[in-house]
Amino acid sequence: MTDQNGPQYQRLLAGKVEVVNVGLEGFVKDLHDCGIGVVHVDWKPSAGGDPQMAALLAKLGV
Amino acid sequence: MAIQPSVKANLYKDSVSLMRISQIAIARSGVQRVTLLMGTRSNKEFLQQAGLMSPVLENAKPGDIMIVVQDDTSEKREAAEREIHSLIAGDEPKAGATESAMDAPPRSIAGGIAIAGHADLALISVPGPYAAAEALKALRRGLNVLLFSDNVTIEQEQAIKRVAAQKGLLVMGPDCGTAIINGVPLGFANVVRRGVIGLVGASGTGLQEVMCQIHRHGLGVSQAIGTGSHDVSSRVGGTTMLQGLALLAADEQTKVIAIVSKPPAPDVQQRVIEQASMIGKPVVLCFLGGEVVASTGNVHRASSLEETAKQAVSLAGAQQPGSDEKAVEELVSRVCRSLAPSQRYLRGLYSGGTFCSEAQIIWLEAGVRARSNAPLADADRLADPEDSYGHTAIDLGSDEFTVGRPHPMIDYGVRVDRLLKEANDPTVACVVLDVVLGYGSHANPAEILAPAIRQAKATAKAKGRELPVICFVCGTAEDPQSFETQKTMLAAAGAELVGSSTAAARSAQAIASRMAASQAVA
To answer: From what superkingdom does this record's organism come (chain A) (predicted)?
Structure first.
């Protein structure tokens, strides 16, 4: 989405970055150590571990 | 060696957590080997190839942990298995724990966003087959994405970047190893001072090496935007690289821009050069292995990582750093004097793919043609990545070495085994190793590598040879592992330390050229 201030991603450089971490938990500690706001998601394969079904669910916004 | 297989159902752990658990279990039980893998198809294929598959594991699902314990004694195997189950259980949420539902970690990106409040970026490192789905979920909820995961198809990358473009969001990756956004290190990132040089790169370790050198030359980095290795292909079209350039062009803190990449597809290269030439800031372009083209206008060409950092520093107004040619010459002369005539071949054992490419490029420029599992030309592909042939440069971070185990910057096991194997080859003139520091990497690599280097050198010595091991440390004094301590430990083990990936490759090439020349004279 581009508004009069340019693409949304340009706001990434405008302020403090806050992160949602999905996957390797080690990254959370590194970010915490740097004083960065981070929330870790306790991820596990969805759709019983079927990647194609997981992709389909993602398309449906689940 | 007997194996004892079992399955822990319905529990997901990432490969780094599994590596940590297996290391503790080995240390506590004294068992010879432990393999812990999620029950994915590729992991089962890996177990099959390794001769570790058993009927017990066949029905394991991607959300189950496959446990394989190897030892000659059944008591030790059972002790290890108990230890593993106990360690796994220790990480599990306890039934009836005092934590309230509010304290429990979220199970989805949507839940993570709700807790974070103002999240603007998702750092995604789930296994490749699930990565695209998670990236799409993050984008649909308005988050920019750093997709660390690899093994994402080009079609998925195209779809992800299409959605990102529609929403005006940035996707760094897939296969994006590093980034620094507003001083926030993401993925494998070094601690560098903030400054005026902005980086965009399709090469993770290439970006790390350039940012470390900029820091060591006394300057700093404003932003480092990783694009992922496939971004510059014709099918993806350099979407992230062009977005990154636009970001750095608009970023007031960035005064000089440097781009590090393998050569993009011709149409992408054209677009990148066109966009770069319209930016009112100096841009250093390093397309490693690409055609060397003269600098024009604000666009300056560099042909190595070292040159990229030096040019960026110089364009930012600092004094051009000096040359290390004398030190390289001294090292090469000393090493060559110690070698037997049979020692002719180079062995580069890299954890960084870009370092592996840069070495092959530098070697080839001097006529030293290397085989590789990630070759410059397909004709130079190694028949078996496990076996070196002639001059060899190995990317130990590529898929064949990383199925079911952490990246070699985290898990040094594969590299140590390969180093010890090379030590037995009487034709090896020298080994080159990269040691990558920073967030995400091993907490103390020299603790693992130094004894292995000592052992490798002792193996060669016992057979009447020297084994020079050239190392460079990609890091800074501010990295959590301590740059100086790492260098001191490696030097004490007999490693030959040089200041950059480029210097390491040049030193090795000079050794090979000189040994070949002395053979020709003889």
So the answer is: Bacteria
